[in-house]
């Protein structure tokens, strides 16, 4: 071996030694922190994880031993406060960065104890808060499940706070998910209109440059005004300007308004020559046809336009979809879709087999009847001309308004009769 080879060998050995020394230093620091925590009697918070989206979140906080936990809710803004014994927090700042339903995370010493504060993006429900022993015997963890809720539900939780403060007993899954759409006494029929796409996500675009996000916003505003003019409904829009909105945020808005109906507005393009007309979609775990599956796949990719990394807990998503299919919500969605197709058929053109289904993320709220309306195809010049026509928008929006009125009356009659 020549001098150059020997030098390379020594450099490699030196690098290996430096790496080992770094690892040993890190272990010494961690062991020192753990020893310091034990020496001063502080509880050690050793790790933090958050997963979920704007509709449902799970937060896990790890400890070196079993913590004595008390929790309560505050409003203005909506917060979950978790009180702990005095705790040494050794958490990674990147891990505690807020996301999904959680708008802010704060923690620290309060003198006689320590506190973790989770601020929500509006009202939420604490579905579950458990103190659990880690399976590997290395310590304990707090597991918190939160989901988007309405102001009424948050207020009810506040009113019952004396019964829940400090509780670590969770309800079973049936109690958390509910048994179908339930409205408060005196609740006005509420419609949330969702103009598809927006901001950096333009959606589909015609050969002539018409962009879907502008078409959906103009139509949604027309529909909102017609519904509001009746005076019987509370009407909200997920967006009223050109702003990007993740799919789970749209679902959160519908749930937090306790919507009786979510109508998502879209206008797609398709490669099938001559295909035109409106379509009404509902949610299912299996698409009604390949075209519906392809559309759902395209719409579900909207979140990628803002560079977001979509992380789904597949089991959670599957449970929600199955639950939705089997419960009263799905029946209401199908009922409204049928009524809507009937009303649209008298005023605007529909494709063949206009009532279809697929796994659209924006329709996944387990307690909000939801439909997605494809107004037409921007890839068809005749449909594009209609979508840009104020007269056509008014006519189509009136048909949807008529369908909402029939659906609202039917629900009110069913409640009165039940």
Automatic annotation (TrEMBL):
Gene3D superfamilies: 2.60.40.3500, Zn-dependent exopeptidases. It catalyses: Hydrolyzes the link between N-acetylmuramoyl residues and L-amino acid residues in certain cell-wall glycopeptides. GO terms for biological process: peptidoglycan catabolic process. Signal peptide: none annotated. Residues 251-405 form the MurNAc-LAA domain. GO terms for cellular component: outer membrane-bounded periplasmic space. SUPFAM superfamilies: Zn-dependent exopeptidases. Its EC number is 3.5.1.28. One of its GO terms (molecular function) is N-acetylmuramoyl-L-alanine amidase activity. Keywords: Hydrolase. This is N-acetylmuramoyl-L-alanine amidase. It comes from Mesorhizobium tamadayense.
